Amino acid sequence: MAVWIAPSILAADFAALGQEVDDVMAAGADAIHFDVMDNHYVPNLTVGPLVLRSLRSRGSCAPVDVHLMVRPVNRLIDDFLAAGADGITIHPDADEDPAGALAAIRAGGAKAGLAVNPDDSPDAVAPLLDAVDTVLVMSVRPGFGGQAFMPSALENVHVARELIDASGRNIRLAIDGGINQDTVGAAAAAGADGFVAGSAVFGAPNKAPRRAEDYRRAIAALRALAAGAANRRG
Description:
38% of the residues lie in helices and 17% in strands. With 234 residues, it is α/β, with parallel strands linked by helices. It has one domain (4-233): Aldolase class I (TIM Barrel). Helix 2 packs parallel to helix 3 and helix 6 runs parallel beside helix 8 (212-233). The longest helix has 22 residues, at 212-233.
């Protein structure tokens, strides 16, 4: 599967979110990663479906991958589908019926994903692989942006890659947390083909003003490093 880069809005300038989304998509991003936190499942509070609806009303056609770090998930699945989500990823321990939640996502016309937290085993998603389009390995503890990459997550990527390959299904294996030019190669070498990057894209450069050309260079560098590592892995 081709390298897939999804900048996370958690690191974007929320005062200019519509323009930020336009700029990173023009700079070569494949999708926008939309972090949704409820101050319950994780100790932080971010955005809801009205923000996505506003982006769509503004005219944004960017593919939006919604990551629900919330409990319970059912109500927000419906709301984000209505707001225009292209994909929705849930945490299996955040719902009593993850299979039903995944089915609801697909029934609504979106791609369904399951996230694996750092302390969890990817084996937990194995029984649900027939119902998912994406497995998202967390390489930080969900809740806050800007955290350092956890090298121990590479083992989860490796195990998830083996499970996906054994399933014979076309499932994206993404990684989220601390992904930058220093870590993306190791993640790709372990088997990831999708990369959620926040500060590594929206924080380039670290000083204002941010420019679309800076985003282009950041995304191109991540893509090249990931592709090179994947090719060496074979």
